[in-house]
């Protein structure tokens, strides 16, 4: 099938080439925080916790915060306690561009709130659990069928203690 595709492209130079991959990394997703709701006081106060729980975030993913920078901002804070109490006194980072891309670079929990009084209490806060990057195993680490056969033989003929 490959030759045919190449032939067609040469015959009709008007066919655009396929778009290049958007990222160099095969992994890494962009999550638009709140989806269509974006980053603003939600109608349901648990909106962002539900949004975050429905997804699995991994190292290499990005969070995109879209909001009205006249109304809100994004403060990253460091602890669950600050998150629960909407404590904005010692943020790790402050973003106020209106369109902020925040990369999840390491596993752990990241907390984001707004500095606007009342908004955080009304549910404008996000807790994201970032999982280690297990999705991208380098090719040489994956066992070949041969390795699996050896391991199977090895396991099969080793006496197993009976439980």
TrEMBL record:
PANTHER family: BLUE COPPER PROTEIN, PHYTOCYANIN DOMAIN-CONTAINING PROTEIN. Residues 29-132 form the Phytocyanin domain. InterPro entries: Cupredoxin, Phytocyanin-like, Phytocyanin_dom. It comes from Eruca vesicaria subsp. sativa. It comes from the Eukaryota. This is Phytocyanin domain-containing protein. Keywords: Disulfide bond, Glycoprotein. Signal peptide: none annotated. It holds the Pfam family Cu_bind_like.
């Amino acid at each position: 099938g490959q030759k045919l595709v190449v032939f067609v492209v040469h015959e009709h130079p008007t066919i655009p080439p396929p778009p290049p991959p958007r990222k160099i990394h095969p992994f890494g997703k962009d999550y638009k925080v709140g989806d269509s709701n974006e980053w603003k006081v939600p109608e349901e106060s648990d909106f962002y916790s539900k949004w975050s729980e429905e997804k699995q975030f991994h190292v290499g993913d990005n969070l995109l915060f879209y909001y009205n920078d006249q109304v809100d901002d994004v403060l990253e804070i460091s602890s669950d306690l600050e998150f629960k109490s909407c404590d904005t006194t010692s943020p790790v980072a402050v973003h106020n561009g209106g369109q902020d891309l925040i990369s999840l670079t390491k596993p752990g929990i990241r907390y984001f709130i707004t500095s606007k009084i009342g908004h955080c209490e009304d549910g404008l806060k996000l807790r994201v659990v970032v999982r280690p990057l297990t999705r991208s195993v380098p090719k040489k680490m994956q066992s070949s069928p041969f390795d699996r056969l050896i391991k199977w033989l090895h396991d099969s003929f080793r006496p197993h203690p009976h439980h």
